[in-house]
Amino acid sequence: MSALPASTGAALAPDARTVTVSVSPPYDVVVGPGLLASAAERVREARLAVVSDETVWGLHGRGLAAALEGAGRSVLTVTVPPGEGSKDLATYGRVVRALAAGGLGRDGGVLALGGGVVGDLAGFAAATYLRGVPCYQLPTTLLAMVDAAIGGKTAIDLPEGKNLVGAFWQPRTVLADVDTLATLPVRELRQGAAEVLKTGLIGDPGLVEATERLLLPAIAGAPSASPADPGALPVAELVDVVARSAAVKARVVAEDPHESGVRAHLNLGHTLAHALEAASGLALSHGDAVLHGLVFAAVLGRDRGLADVVERVAGLVKRLGPDPLPTFDLASLAPFLARDKKAVAGRMRFVLLEEVGRPVVVDDVTADELASAWRTLEELMR
Amino acid sequence: MSALPASTGAALAPDARTVTVSVSPPYDVVVGPGLLASAAERVREARLAVVSDETVWGLHGRGLAAALEGAGRSVLTVTVPPGEGSKDLATYGRVVRALAAGGLGRDGGVLALGGGVVGDLAGFAAATYLRGVPCYQLPTTLLAMVDAAIGGKTAIDLPEGKNLVGAFWQPRTVLADVDTLATLPVRELRQGAAEVLKTGLIGDPGLVEATERLLLPAIAGAPSASPADPGALPVAELVDVVARSAAVKARVVAEDPHESGVRAHLNLGHTLAHALEAASGLALSHGDAVLHGLVFAAVLGRDRGLADVVERVAGLVKRLGPDPLPTFDLASLAPFLARDKKAVAGRMRFVLLEEVGRPVVVDDVTADELASAWRTLEELMR
């Protein structure tokens, strides 16, 4: 018997799971440990640009670049300041100019290494530089792994509003290296938990349970700025949560790549969340706003005789500990609710739950229903 | 017998011709007189943004906006300074911000009214605002009618080079109103004649003849800045030239919407042209550079034993009277030639003619062939 050959390629990550997004052309979301170190196996272009923020670059970028260069690739680096402020026209201009100055050609590829901001910004740069070059999403936050990195929505902000300019540009591959989550502050882990919970509510009840069982203990009671306790997040279970979340999103995206129909289901909790974010001048984070929005949607649904998940969702959200519900009255939120794309002719459109795993779009929510659900939300969450 | 009903819709323009571009979804290029005045019949959205440059807005924009408003549409206006300088990131930012500030929604439409600069800029804004809203191209130059407005290539420039950022975004309809050509300076008409001649050489020998018979008399010997003599450009013949040119371009675009193959044929004359433009710091206009480039391609082809159209092309180009061939030596052009996307591994790629109407891509043009053809071009064109 001869010795087994040294393992190479995907075999280096025996714990990895792959979810295929069946758009045209299809692409893989690979979830596992050690994926950045072995990225060269899944990135085919010889010339690459790694776009990252300064924080993520310091933590994971140098290692990624060294690994790629070690595999014979040429690597151009573009870093931007961390934070939503980098999703602006000026930073977008800096990124595409850096790609041009570095001579990246149509046969090159862009690697977006970071959270949702970097994914959106670098994705939009890749979508438009030379009218589109291949893009790889390498999300380093739980939120980006389960949401922004999958589905091809890229965007930057204008002073007039968030995500007003962008493109649909599907990545060539998504590499979700769960090792990067070890450096994630608890607060950022909570942002991701919000989307995992949402994803569970619309498409996989097991993810609601996983949020309670796996994510909650790593988040509840811990100081927001500290890294999550690595011991609380075993790799195999993390991979499972991310891969299952990715599978739900992949299913929805494949049914509706350009967001003309069922992709709206992904907006469970987001109608109120967008209004809370905007009315607070983005002081409330997206994930925390979504957590409040999920409770709000649960109340709206229960009061209409749909699923009653208020107790379970509100209980879980409270223990996850988002920043408090801002002390607006509903009247001051109204303009931001009405501005939402989901508003139709006076009545409001919301995604609600017929039951866990069965979302439904209703577009006739009245002002009275809103007011009543808002009062209940205030009682529950303040 | 009852009276005939009053004519409406497309019947208002009995001289109009329609060319369909068979991409997915297909769209029409309508060529005729009076199309701006009746634009509301072919533009379906209720909320519209007209993007134009200040010159074109003064000549044709007010009338278009009034006609649209008279048909019950709401019209937002965005004007930019005339000239290539407006194809920059700052002006792009101004345009998308104006669309956002004006509250244009996904159910709105962008009308690009102007020459190639406006078409590229407004087309890119439409491609990216809200991740894409419908775009109508309303070209007001012969060059834009036969080239830029058709095919969905949109772009802006970076300081690092022209058209480095953009998107493929097919218009919903192209309205080429030949009435606008009456205000076109002779110099601009010549830019269009260059692309008509190129289009004829690659796909319709009748257009070479039409350039000689119809366009040349309106251009040759006339002062560059004055409007072309309207009497020299009968509407029916203009419509025929524009529609036939559009038909050739539509055929090529439909075969290759994302420029991965035969669309390269549209680059006849453009490899040298791009180098001349870049080396001259854009002092030489695109159309004039293309005219020199067409002679160069004719020489290269003849010297390889392909079609011999040097005498006919050079004779016609000289009479069209482009700005003179700059007094570079070939060595100073070389870096700009090598930078061209069409360069492959030391040898150069060029589109040449096997015969008129039968282009061929060769990718093994040697430095010696280039030097010889350049000397011939200098003899012919200086």
Description:
- Two copies of one chain form a homodimer.
- By secondary structure, chain A is an alpha/beta fold.
- The first copy, chain A, has two domains: 15-245, Rossmann fold, CATH 3.40.50.1970; 268-381, Up-down Bundle (Dehydroquinate synthase-like, alpha domain), CATH 1.20.1090.
- Helices cover 44% and strands 19% of the residues of chain A.
- Chain A has helices spanning 54-70, 89-101, 116-128, 142-148, 186-203, 205-219, 235-255, 270-279, 286-303, 310-320, 330-339, 367-381; strands at 17-21, 27-32, 47-53, 74-80, 109-114, 135-139, 153-158, 161-168, 173-177, 343-344, 347-355, 358-365.
- Chain A binds chain B through residues 89, 92-93, 96-97, 100-101, 105-106, 124, 127-132, 153-155, 158-161, 164-168, 341, and chain B through 89, 92-93, 96-97, 100-101, 105-106, 124, 127-132, 153-155, 158-161, 164-168, 341.
